[in-house]
Amino acid sequence: MKLNSCIAALPSGYLFAEIAKRVKAYSALHPDADLIRLGIGDVTRPLSKHVAQAMADAALGMSTPEGFHGYAPDYGYSFLIDAIIQGDYSSRGIEINPDEVFISDGAKPDVGNLQELFSADSRIAVTDPVYPVYVDSNAMSGRLGVFENGKWSRLIYLPCNAENDFVPSLPTEKADILYLCYPNNPTGTVLTFAQLKKFVDWAIEMDSIIVYDAAYKAFITRGDVPFSIYEIPGARKCAIECCSFSKNAGFTGVRCGYMIIPREVSGLCGTERVSLNRLWQRRASTKSNGVSYPVQVAAAAVYDEQGQREIMESVRYYLANAGIIRKGLAGAGGTVFGGTDSPYIWMQTPHRMKSWDFFDLLLNEANVVGTPGEGFGPSGEGYFRLTAFNTKEKTEEAVRRIAGVLAKL
Amino acid sequence: MKLNSCIAALPSGYLFAEIAKRVKAYSALHPDADLIRLGIGDVTRPLSKHVAQAMADAALGMSTPEGFHGYAPDYGYSFLIDAIIQGDYSSRGIEINPDEVFISDGAKPDVGNLQELFSADSRIAVTDPVYPVYVDSNAMSGRLGVFENGKWSRLIYLPCNAENDFVPSLPTEKADILYLCYPNNPTGTVLTFAQLKKFVDWAIEMDSIIVYDAAYKAFITRGDVPFSIYEIPGARKCAIECCSFSKNAGFTGVRCGYMIIPREVSGLCGTERVSLNRLWQRRASTKSNGVSYPVQVAAAAVYDEQGQREIMESVRYYLANAGIIRKGLAGAGGTVFGGTDSPYIWMQTPHRMKSWDFFDLLLNEANVVGTPGEGFGPSGEGYFRLTAFNTKEKTEEAVRRIAGVLAKL
Asked: Model-level pTM greater than 0.90?
């Protein structure tokens, strides 16, 4: 009985599991420590009352003959698909058809599962640093070769750092799939229309596909940054977009997201050109039974007037926290990026300290939990991620403590 | 840009999509037809009030600081894991550890995703007829060879039919993975302790793994039939068990299930013996963010006294329907199997009619939707599945109509 060695060969644990382990060990030794968590990207503010009430009503309705819902449509209820199209696309002048929207239990499963559509020998490109799921899910399927000296042998890395202003170069070798995430996790930086257009033009020319993770689009404040890759002409030919209710509506524990696969996006199966939309339909209807009905009702409530008002209150709250971190650390002599159109602040470690060392330092000296940049890829070394998802009070306190550590270095 | 040709090469649509298509076409031509659906295994009775109330309370609580829950533990909340262990295992004298339980959004995703742990050249065996997900998910990963004359070239089929009393023989060639589902979907038949023990002994001897789908265990009434494969000595070494809240608690639209992977179940990665429990942990934490909190609260409510009382009322209701179909069709001259410990009745088509022809006949002449046996595999040809999940009244009416069709043949 042989197993998938590619899973067993994955280096160490998933990043956040490793962080949890170190925090647990520290807490066991220091049970009274007042830890502040600016590490994992989990939200802290309660759900919108309006959205929670919609979910509760749907749940209770499930115990009545009129309100009961069995198997959901495989790709999502049309009431939610229509709300998404209207709220996120038509309203921006983007045309998306209902059969191009796929509701799921989150953007992480979507970006993790999507690679099943690609051939086993596809070449993958990612920006570096990067959200680990793009890499690990492809590694598990054996596409990335061997892991040596912190790098996968077949993965194409596009470094993003202070030197290039966190704007990746186009791949110089043939990449079949390019994962882009903007506003970016972990760096908190964005691409302008003009910068993103270069990637879309490249993908069309090279017959490549862009997987565009737009989970953080609700945080965009600048006018020259696209909310959707489909605001770029031609993107319907080459781009799949993944979105989430986790960060805009606080759904990390509710679980809902969606993926847009335009009919035009295609690739080769043998000599035949096949639509990825059709392929994903087959995959989804075989391996999933759709998303919980009360959850879909809750997601739809995000889009009505009251829902929008209530969720945007939280988004603004988190953006204000991001400003507190950005300004506070810059004022304390830190070098920081992101945090204006994103809940993430990307800071250079002081004196080019190793990022896991800085993690341990902040954990020990400031009782603040962040995320070491190296966990996001080789170019993340020397950087550190802080999130704006805690309370204003704890965020301010964390910044004070980190400033204290910086002052002593 | 090359795609996964194995998905594109899958024969026709997923079974239930094909049925939906034919029903839609019929309904378009006959908009006033009073269709009765005994086809897809979807439940119809509302959720237990108690369970729905628990979910609604949890949903509403999510809008308060005290009740809010962000990311769930990757493998499930311990309140649910403990309830499962107590309710489904300890109470039957089976020892399962909390880290051997994995909560998911359903048994279908679990049995669909589990194959990712197996090596690409693993040999798969299934009973025939079979729930299509076991086959299709492995076909998508390229393990089954080519599909010719209704069969996959590398898949090992274990026929189950009236001649062998629906008890499969042991595989005669080396099978790395054997999928068993009991009470069986689609045949509605069961294996006794003694019959299942033969498979467990075989798996241990052959270093094979049994994936045991126990989604229908709530329907077991006979005393000589195990509720869990772990009631068989040695099964902890070789068996993974998948369970669902869909059919016992009506969760087809709520989405929750769980999988048991004992620490002892292992296979080879190169020359190293690796625990499947550990491998699944890695897979789950990389590609999922756990299950919706209100859904897990609802699932836990299934296990308390009121929850059990209310859900078992529905199970008994469906079992009574199964009795109505079984006795009604037998009385009308039909040959029927299953339906005593299962919500499914498996009937031989009259005069060995092709099962899709019988499907069309019942749709046209009786306005009853069933599922053609051929959709479940080559040995399903000449059989037809009917489900007990409709109302008593509609079930009785459907039986009357089918009996009318049988009388005319």
From this structure: yes
